[in-house]
Model the fold of this input.
Amino acid sequence: MESSSIDDMITDAEQVYVIDSNAFINDPRIIENLFHGDETIEICVVPDVVIDELGHQGHKEGNPILQRNANETLRYLNKLRKNDTLEPCLYSPIPNKYVYLVDTREYAGDSPSSKYRENEEDDLITSVAIGIKNKTSKVVLVTDDVRMTMRASRRGLSNEQIMTLDEVDKFTNSDLLYKGWVNLEYLKQNEQDMINIYHYLDPDMIKERINRAPFPNEYFFAKGGSLILRYDAKQNRVVRISTQNLFRGISGKNPQQTAAIDAMMNTNIDVVRIIGMPGSGKTYLALAAALKFCTDKTIENRVYSSILAIKPIVGIGKGLGFEPGTREEKMQTWMRSYYDALHSIFETSSNIMGEVKGLEDKHIIEYEVMHEIQGRNLPGRFGIIDEGLKGCCHRRPNTDI
Done:
């Protein structure tokens, strides 16, 4: 595709995003977050110098999460190539949305010389945005680099033409994200009758209500949350679930917590993802469910015999550091959320510390750093990953299960 045809597309587009390598490193799927779901023509421009920077970051020693994100971005962009060619227009599965890989020097023109060598790539990417600005005012530079934001502003881009990742998160339509549950404002009489008699609904009834097929293990709240249903894909039924008590009689305090407990106690569901505000009971309920599995001998066909409490350690890189103390002593600060949750679970006990130490001495619960479980086979373990988003490459707005 010739440069002139790219220029024509850029001129006709409703919005043109020039994406900095720093934005990709922090969110490898940022292209999907930027595109709207409507019919307007939108373009993401990726200067080829960004590919070089991502390749450098992918082999650079340091934060392993940034390394992984850089390599994931390169794989993602490579999959967008049309017919394994190096055409500047990459494939986009969304109609009227395009991704262009452009020659940086061609669009940047004469980039001002940098005082420091490490600023040269930033200047080039900013110059690409300014070069496109000369063709259309609907250009936006997307970056998570504060220094680059300030330099771009000084070089003539307005605040409306600069977008940070925090603004991308607000800009993304969170209503389109899958939450794990749907609130049904009311039940029709035939639906209520079917639940009363058979304790389940036909999936087609739900499909008619929400204008799409239900997802496997998706929950549906009715009657103000007093009635909770879950779509069982194996049975192809939307079954009614009952409230379950966990370790020491702990139960859900709202429909979302009740649904989370049902998912965690269902051995047919291998992975449960719970996101919520701090203090909403995520770690507390996960530990209570795990302890129920590992200590309640009345549960038939127990598949878990111990708990592996996992947490990513981002602030100090790969290791636990070289400060004095044993490995367990250095982990205590990082695993504080687990200790606090265990203390809350045993708050009615006269010997809280003894109860917790008893679990640890019997190896019912063990603590581990996320990067140290890679490649390990852990059969019979109920794994809990606290603050999993810190070990994840995607930045998404919080939603509750």
User: Anything to note?
Assistant: The first strand starts at residue 15 and ends at 19.
